[in-house]
């Protein structure tokens, strides 16, 4: 049985669209494939990384977070 899929739309500015087009051409993939992979990667990250990517952390929390992430990478 085929997996159920959903199509979603995103809104980006012209510069972002151009950069996405170039990346897709370079990698030989469609925009849907690119965005699917980005979404899957993002949703598989822990809440801390998600908050960092979304810009939802204060300046005061960034230094301790950076230390924690470096410690995780060192393991």
Could you characterize the architecture of this molecule?
- The protein folds into 2 domains: 34 residues, no CATH class; 29 residues, no CATH class.
- It is 67% helix and 0% strand.
- The longest helix is centred in the C-terminal third of the chain and has 16 residues.
- It starts with 13 loop residues before the first helix and ends with a helix.
List how many beta strands DSSP finds.
Answer: 0
Model regions low in confidence, pLDDT < 50 over at least 5 residues = none
Structural class: mainly alpha
What about the largest sheet? none
Order of helices and strands: HHHH
Q: Span from first to last CA?
A: 40 Å
Count the domains.
2
Helix content: 55-70%
- Give the percentage of residues in beta strands: under 5%
Number of helices in the DSSP assignment? 4
Q: What general form does the structure show?
A: extended
Mean pLDDT: 88
Q: Please compute the radius of gyration using only Cα atoms.
A: 16 Å
Features:
67% helix, 75 residues, 2 domains, 0% strand, mainly alpha
């Amino acid at each position: 049985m085929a997996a159920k899929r959903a199509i979603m739309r995103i809104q980006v500015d012209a510069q972002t669209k151009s950069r996405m087009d170039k990346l897709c051409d370079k990698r030989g993939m469609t925009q849907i494939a690119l965005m699917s992979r980005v979404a899957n990667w993002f949703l598989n990250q822990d809440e801390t990384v998600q908050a960092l990517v979304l810009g939802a952390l204060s300046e005061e929390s960034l230094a301790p977070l950076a230390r924690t992430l470096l410690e995780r990478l060192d393991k």
